[in-house]
Design a protein that fits this description.
Helix content is 37%, strand content 25%. The protein contains 6 helices and 7 strands. The strands form 2 sheets. The chain has a 5-stranded parallel beta sheet with strand order 5-4-3-6-7, sandwiched between helices. The chain is globular, with a radius of gyration of 17 Å. It starts with a strand and ends with a helix. It binds adenosine-5'-diphosphate. The site of adenosine-5'-diphosphate has 17 residues, from helix 1 and strand 6.
Length: 174
Amino acid sequence: MTQCAITSKGPEFTMERTALYPGSFDPMTHGHADIIERGLRLFDRIIVGVAVNISKKPLFSLEERVGFLEARFPQAEVEIAHLDGLLVDEAKRLGCVAILRGIRNGSDFDYEFRMTCMNGHLAPELETVFLMADPEHLFVSSSLIKEVARFGGEITDFVPEDVAQALGERLGDQ
Ligand code: ADP
């Protein structure tokens, strides 16, 4: 979509800039939500790409993972999509100019560094943009939240209410 701004040099038309934020989101946390909200300061639109095939068996189905994100982000600037192919091909197919990722620590960085080099090689026209995790969410990961929930720990500070409830129902009895 094009946008028009009136500047001192007359009307200026700009293309809407969309970023693809890919991940497993099994389930989404406040850390993920923070990256999406801050990403919207840089991009006109964010497409959250939920991985169809993730190496570990996910706790939540694709539909459930998508549903949590849709409930948290009903606004038009955030779209939720299924990702089922090579990331750079999916980003191009969806009309994105960049891939958005969050970084919490050194191991995130090591992994992301290699991925970014490979993606840059495969699709030099796509930039990868990293946002550092908010200090409040540095230690938050979907896997740690599931571990805490499995042992009945309090997780309501880290995930939306519907996610906390679903985690309790799915893991509470284990
Ligand atoms: P993946 O399996 O691709 O790592 P995740 O759902 O775990 O999928 O994470 C998706 C993206 O969100 C990654 O870039 C990850 O670093 C980032 N992320 C995850 N948790 C947080 C958090 N607490 N704060 C900031 N970024 C996060």
